[in-house]
Amino acid sequence: MNYMIFLLITVIITFASQNYIQSMYRKTKKISSKHGMTGEEVARKILDKNGLKSVKVQEVDGTLSDHYDPKSKTVNLSRDIFENTSLASVSVASHECGHAIQDKEGYRFLRIRSSIVPIVNLASRIGYIVIMISFLTSLLDLLWIGIGLEFIILLFQVITLPVEFNASNRALKQITDLKIVEEEEHRMCKKMLKAAALTYVASVATAVIEILRLVLIARRRD
User: Is the confidence at residue 2, as pLDDT, over 70?
Assistant: First the structure.
């Protein structure tokens, strides 16, 4: 019964966080910035002002698929963000530029996160395969290995938190210093970025709950 409670809590947290960010995104997407700058223009202005003219800004497929790639040195913006002049576009574009500035300055947590990506990718691919095999074979050692792999993913998510919050803080400073938004618009951008950050907090919470659920199962089988 405890297992089902943990699972239910995980589902609720995931649903609530995703619903919140989607709701805030839809709200800020409807509000055009007074200066009428597209996401591409916002990103280009922030990058250029921070000595990052070599970093490219390009359009990618998907919705909220925006990200900064430290390997190719590109700010990748989804079509809605890239082309539109909404406060959502300003918020997301400036946030991704925050990551580019982190990369330039050698932000510690970004370096740590980047260095463990290969290990985390491996853990993500095989973690639940190992756990499923342990359930099918009743091999307790395999279950503990699977829990260890899930803990690696949790560590990555915990390290991601300061990276994302710091990028949002940098974004808010940039759009203020460069006068990209007005004061009242700044408050809406802050709400949008806060909503996005909370999804990472939710990911950490759900990962912790899932690990606790697996540990309870392992201890009961021990």
Answer: no
Question: Hey, what are 177's tokens?
Answer: 């210093």
* Mean pLDDT on 164-192: 95
Please report the pLDDT score of residue 5 as a whole number.
77
120-149 burial, b for 16+ CB within 10 Å, e for fewer?
Answer: beebeeebeebbeebeeeeeeebbbbbbeb
Structural domain including 47 reads: 2-221
Note whether 70 and 120 are within 8 A (CB). Answer: no
Query: Is 182 a known active-site residue?
Result: no
Structure tokens at 46: 């922030």
Compare 98 and 198 and report the one with higher pLDDT.
Answer: 98
- Paired with 59 in beta bridges are 77
**DSSP secondary structure of 135-196:** HHHT-HHHHHHHHHHHHHHHHHHHHHHHHHHHHHHHHHHHHHHTT-S-HHHHHHHHHHHHHH
b (16+ CB within 10 A) / e for 72-106: eebbbbbebbbebbbbbbbbbbbbbbbbbbbbeee
Contact in structure between 29 and 222 (CB atoms under 8 Å): no
Where are the extended beta strands (E) located within 20-137? 56-60, 67-69, 74-78
Element containing residue 8 per DSSP (H, E):
helix 2-29
- What is the distance, to the nearest Å, from the Cα of residue 93 to the centroid of all Cα atoms in its chain? 14
Based on the structure, what is the number of domains in the chain? 1
From 41, 96, 164, 185, active-site residue: 96
- pTM of the shown model: 0.88
